[in-house]
Amino acid sequence: MKKVIYGIVTILLLSVLTACGSNEEDNNGVSAATKPGNASAGEGQPASGEHVLGSKPLKLTFYSTSGTLPDTEFKTLIADPIHAKYPNVTIERITPAATTTAEEVLTTHEPDIIYSTSTTHQQIIRTGAYEDLRDLIDKYQFDTSRIKPILWNYIKDLGKNGEIYAIPFNSNQHVLYYNKDIFDKFGVEYPPNEQLTWDQVLEIAKKLTRTDNGVHYVGLSVDNLTGLAKGLGLPYLDRETGNAAIDTPEWHRIFDLEKQIFDIPGYVSPDGVWDYGRDQFMKDQTVAMRVTWLANMVGPLEELRQQGVEFNWDIAPAPNFEDQLGKTREAQIQSLSINSQSKHKEEAFQVIAEILSDDGQRILSRNGRVPAITNPDLEKEYGLDIPVLQGKTVQNVFVGEPLQEHYFHPYENDISVRLTEAAEDLAIHGLDVNSAIRKATDAINKDVESLRQTIGQ
């Protein structure tokens, strides 16, 4: 009897030792069974991350420095999916006053995860708030090859010495939104499901720009000079010198097109309004066509729908110059970063890795964001879960090849106001294209000289 008991005990001990050996940790202290990138995690998926996120209550804070991310999207795309998979993890959004700058927020708060776009990447780099993610990428074997090259190449170009400051969240592409009710009102045929030239779009816009029963309708909104320039991937400043780079044949082409838009009879309103954007399309519903980013409109349109406001609109491919057909505008980088002051860097990275998993990116795609990863199957599911896109021609989102965003000089965001002023000069101050370019060039170069003295670089 003693021999039998001894044999059973021996077998149990061997079983325990074998089980322990199968979960032996590597040199980084990460269990091989749960290490991200391990085959057991599933193809294209990060591992569960429970070795970092654990089961203890954890609150991570989240701050958006730029870009459109309504609370509805924050919950649907980020906070709710993470909490569903890791019930112990809560992601709480920091929402400062609208007048508070990103620099002020980052000096008074320590958000764990930072959401940014190309308009603020260089600004945040200057604050030192971005953690260099290379060590975390290596430690958790995060597969960057899954990210679309035009997005990842832009991110790699941000660091002067190879630093990786962000992980792309989604590809923010451009489309042409159009208000069917306005087209119907004036008996104009809808834009087709193929890419039009700017000349073709201008002809449509002329038919839709008019005043009717005291309401001023505008045929086309394009995000002005900065929006149009994205169709050719044009920088505002010379990368090496930092001086204005807008006196070029390509930029002259952009200024000429902007001038043609402003010269449409009735485009500038009787009271001098010339700049039309999201509110005029979505709330006032007086803009017939708007060429802009997906993320700028889809989330806000869904929030408007939830408030009970709906109208008849659809999506067409973004237009371009005749010799550029087949290409659309630059795909804006919207990204996730980790605060260099965060006390939960590894946990925050695991959250980002989860959002970049196939499952995480599927949620984005089904709710109106183009995935950051290369996976055509996910794009087939685009918009399926967001009510505002039901019945829309969402396949037009993928007509044309988006361009990689140009390199944003550290001063570019600071001087962009000069291009808004240049557009106003064309619209209401009577300047011709050459004069507007010369004036803007002089103003930009003066700004750059001042920035060199105050910021350096």
From TrEMBL:
Pfam families to which the protein is assigned, alphabetical: SBP_bac_1
Cell membrane keyword on record? yes
UniProt xrefs under PROSITE patterns = PROKAR_LIPOPROTEIN (PS51257), SBP_BACTERIAL_1 (PS01037)
Residues of the region (Disordered) are 25-50
Q: Which UniProt keywords apply?
A: Cell membrane, Lipoprotein, Membrane, Palmitate, Signal, Transport
Which one GO biological process term can you cite for this protein? transmembrane transport
Q: Which SUPFAM superfamilies does the UniProt entry name for this protein?
A: Periplasmic binding protein-like II
Identify the stretch annotated as signal peptide in this record. Answer: 1-21
Q: Known InterPro entries for this protein?
A: Bact_solute-bd_prot1, SBP, SBP_1_CS
Write out the similarity annotation.
Belongs to the bacterial solute-binding protein 1 family.
Q: What is this protein called?
A: Extracellular solute-binding protein
